[in-house]
Amino acid sequence: MEKLGRQIEIGPTDNTSNERTPRNRLHLIPDNARGSFAPYAPQNYGINPAEADMTRIAPGRPRGEGDAIKVTGQIMDEFGRPIRNSLIEIWNANKYGRYTHIEDHSGLQLDPNFLGVGRTLSDNDGNYEFWTIRPGEYLARPDIGRWRPKHIHLSIRGGSSRIITQMYFAGDPHNDTDPMRILMGDNFDKNLGKEYETDGEDFDCGYQFDIVIGGKNPTFFENN
Amino acid sequence: MTQSSGKSNRLIATNEDTLGPYYPISLCDNDSMDLTEIRSGIINKPLGEKIIINGCIKDINGNLANGILLEFWQPNAAGIYRRPDTETHHKLDPWFTGYARHRTKDGNFTLTTIKPGVDVDLETPRAPNITLTIFSDGIMRIVTQLFFEGEKANDTDPLLLSINEELRDRLMIKPDGEDENGIKKYKIEIIMAGDNETPFFDDLLS
Ligand SMILES: [Fe+3]
After folding, report:
1. What residue ranges define each of the domains in chain B, with the CATH number in brackets?
2. Which of A6, A74, A219, B20 is the most buried (most CB within 10 A)?
């Protein structure tokens, strides 16, 4: 009998999830085919360091509205080994919960000084840092009154390591009812930024967000 | 530092999330969907046969799946992947990365590439294939592998042999004529869910 992989569950109350979740179980990858299943991305050169400052559209421009925050963390594999020189892509809504994305049709207020898109690279120890404006929560599904709590989207790509994830904020009242959060169960605290003070720096506060790429995202070659 | 689990020294992984609907389009501005040119205007080209693959990704209703992020990954014309363990391989092609990424607005894509080859030195040679990873709203990433219809090596490929014939056919990239320069064109339709669903493969070591 053929061994089968995971059955992906349809996410709660989400139309896109219903439309796009495979109904059949995933098929296990035979051992002798596995080496081909871990796309190894070339290294990223030429990222402009200014792209890590998402509080303004470009150097020298005014900051967007809201609280300027600093996000720092380390990216590592399940064994605690740093994932170096990885590409970190960041996107978040402005203070009013509006994305600058052309497909955000919410009609919420735009901020003329906030782009909401950034990039940076992790260093030799896997550490990264970026600055942004604390995002607002937003009503993702007006038809069913479903809010998304404050969150920052992050995509990380380094070698064969991949994760797309979100950093959440402790104490957001919408955390409790967020379908993404519910799927995470007790593991939700892994996706909370840990707040710290930034005395003497030009930020309202900092958040430490360490990212472990593992589980369904093994860092295949790095682990060998 | 993230806490390790009680059972092993492994750290607990950060939870994966969906791509969401607002992945910034501009982040893909420097990604190329033409693997036959590392940069434009350079005389060096990868070895092998240049081909064009037109494809689309559909949802359970047969509608094109908009706003998704696609990653393509393939070996060179000699069947060698560019990875840390092949850095000194004598058949590695310096002008071929094998990696492409693309954010499709409407669910369609076009990949210009080199026809992947077969590494005949392997104990279990793989048929020519391209790995496709899909990041989407509503679902964490899913992965499949695409093959070329009619290849002899398909008959002995370990991945194709692990699924039934009907499913195998859904992974086949099919010939679709030539363009005005005589470059062979191919086509493929990926169905994320429902009738004729494309088989997806588990990237979890489980
Ligand atoms: Fe969001």
Report:
1. 34-191 (2.60.130.10)
2. A219
